[in-house]
Specification:
disordered N terminus, five-stranded mixed beta sheet, 23% strand, three-stranded antiparallel beta sheet, 10 strands, 10 helices
């Protein structure tokens, strides 16, 4: 957990480089918009530290931070509606393969800090225990291949896992109410929130299965090819 906090606290340095000692005049600031990947959470700590302490202004930037709505960060950055966004390594890879002009410019968290969470009463200890469960998917094309690979490595039958699309509904609420048995979460955010809510979870962390799934960055800053070229 300490590594995660240190990594996100350095986000400001990643975005603005070496801070100057004098703020740029307001009329000389360059306005840019940064769209988050979700509601503000621990992964975004450095961004809000930078905004609160004036680091963006010191680098000549006026940064508006917005949350996604009907349009996600990848779409907004691709069309140029916003200059920067936060995405995930998996999504950027798939988007690039599909021809989207997205570019990852910095990693917020350098290790995979995600995992598959299930209510503690189900005694889920490995991907082999996913058989017979219902997974609440958020609709990304990388979910099924990831789950299939993990279960195959554990000698389990992927076809025995039921998958329902729940979109971006709160996975902790869905797990707590028994509407799904399994959800993909960020431990550093939702794992801690679950502890605060008193929701007992068993979490199969991805970093325990790098022999099956390669390690990769989780949240990333993104922009598009046009902005990079300009």
């Amino acid at each position: 957990m300490k590594k995660i906090i240190i990594a996100v606290a350095l986000t400001a340095a990643v975005l603005v480089g070496t801070a100057c000692t004098t703020d740029a005049p307001a009329d000389e600031l360059t306005s840019v918009t940064l769209m988050l990947d979700w509601v503000p959470n621990v992964n975004h700590t450095g961004i809000f530290v930078a905004q609160e302490n004036g680091y963006f202004e010191q680098e000549g930037l006026q940064v508006e931070i917005v949350q996604p709505g009907e349009v996600y960060a990848e779409q907004a950055v691709t069309t140029g509606s916003v200059e920067f966004g936060i995405s995930f390594q998996e999504q950027v890879t798939i988007s690039r393969a599909d021809g989207a002009p997205l570019v990852s410019i910095a990693a917020i968290v350098h290790e995979n800090t995600s995992g598959f969470a299930a209510p503690a009463g189900l005694d889920v200890e490995s991907p082999a225990d996913f058989e017979g469960l219902t997974y609440g998917a958020f609709g990304s094309p990388f979910e099924e291949p990831t789950l299939s690979s993990l279960m195959q490595c554990a000698g389990a039958d992927f076809s025995e896992l039921a998958i329902v699309n729940v979109g971006f509904a709160d996975p902790l609420t869905l797990l707590d109410e028994g509407r799904v048995d399994l959800a993909w979460i960020f431990f550093g955010t939702q794992g801690i929130i679950a502890e605060q809510r008193g929701i007992e979870l068993d979490i199969v962390m991805m970093n325990d299965y790098f022999g099956c799934i390669p390690n990769y960055y989780t949240p990333l800053f993104i922009t598009n090819d046009t902005l990079i070229a300009e």
